[in-house]
Specification:
Blueprint lengths: L2 E6 L4 E5 L12 E5 L3 E5 L2 E5 L11 H4 L7 E3 L6 H6 L8 E5 L5 H4 L9 E5 H8 L11 H4 L4 E5 L3 E4 L2 E5 L8 E6 L4 E4 L7 H6 L9 H17 L3 E3 L6 H4 L5 E3 L8 E3 L1
Parallel strand pairs: 5-7, 7-8, 8-9, 13-14
Antiparallel strand pairs: 1-4, 2-3, 2-6, 4-5, 10-11, 11-12, 12-13, 15-16
């Protein structure tokens, strides 16, 4: 059993104050960040890391996105998670496993489409998503994840399938988790929101909207260590320059994504 390839899905662009990316640095500077769920093709089935922004907001923006509209720089029908999957010949029904890095609104907007999937989430994140502290409740939109889905609540690191495992990376939220993917010749560490930009790594500072800053620093260092220990690379999909370095689906990365080796499915 093995990982056959990895796809980066273009699910829109958000705009935020730079302090969201780098704690206490860049007040008043607006930065555009991509929303990038990741599809992993394995011998044991498809694994999807996060589900993006809720496309129903295109029709009912006030009802679905509400105040979050101010963060959405770009989102069209093309950025719908279902459309992105279709680019590689995959439908929501084909996804065997979904991994929610956490329950924030831009990572769970398509959850309801995956009623055939097992959805992995940390038990602590599941609980916090329903009953968040008041200071952080604005990032959780309950109707995005509150569906009769097959949630599998886990505690700690977990192997999803051979070559793909979850590792905890708390700090951004109580139950944030990242994904480690063993490609043919590289260990790809998908940070999720544990790292918002490369500047976080360069300056060793967590995202500014962290639930717990000290745990955020620990997770930042932990993920770098996992990548280094496995001769791999830490992929920061919220980095403002992500699409300058990587190709979106339908390109499939079978080996080292940084080598820009890709095949079209």
């Amino acid at each position: 059993m093995a990982v056959n390839g990895m796809y980066f899905l273009d699910c829109g662009v958000l705009t935020c104050d730079k302090t969201f990316i780098t704690y206490k640095q860049g007040f008043g500077e607006l930065v555009d960040i991509p929303v990038v769920p990741v599809l992993i093709d394995t011998d044991d089935g498809y694994v999807l890391f996060d589900t993006g922004v809720d496309p129903a907001g295109l029709i009912l923006p006030d009802e679905v996105w509400g105040v979050k509209q101010s963060f959405i720089k770009q989102f069209t029908e093309e950025n719908d998670i279902r459309v992105q999957l279709k680019k590689v010949g995959v439908s929501p029904q084909d996804i065997k496993y979904v991994v929610n890095s956490h329950f924030h609104w831009d990572h769970t907007g398509g959850n309801r489409f995956f009623d055939h999937s097992t959805i992995f989430v940390q038990k602590s994140e599941f609980r916090f998503g329903y009953y968040p502290d008041s200071a952080f409740e604005g990032s959780y939109i309950k109707r995005y994840f509150d569906h009769p889905l097959n949630y599998k609540l886990i505690e700690g690191d977990y192997e999803v399938v051979k070559g793909v495992y979850i590792t905890t990376s708390t700090g951004h939220t109580p139950g944030h988790q990242s994904l480690v993917v063993h490609l043919q010749n590289e260990c790809a560490v998908l940070a999720g929101d544990a790292v918002y930009g490369k500047e976080c790594i360069e300056k060793n500072i967590p995202p500014g909207n962290s639930w717990d800053l000290s745990r955020g620093i620990e997770s930042l260092n932990k993920l770098q260590h996992i990548a280094k220990r496995n001769n791999g690379h830490l992929y920061v999909t919220h980095d403002p320059n992500f699409w300058k370095e990587y190709k979106p689906a339908p390109f499939c990365y079978k080996q080292n994504a940084r080598l820009i080796e890709h095949t079209e499915k």
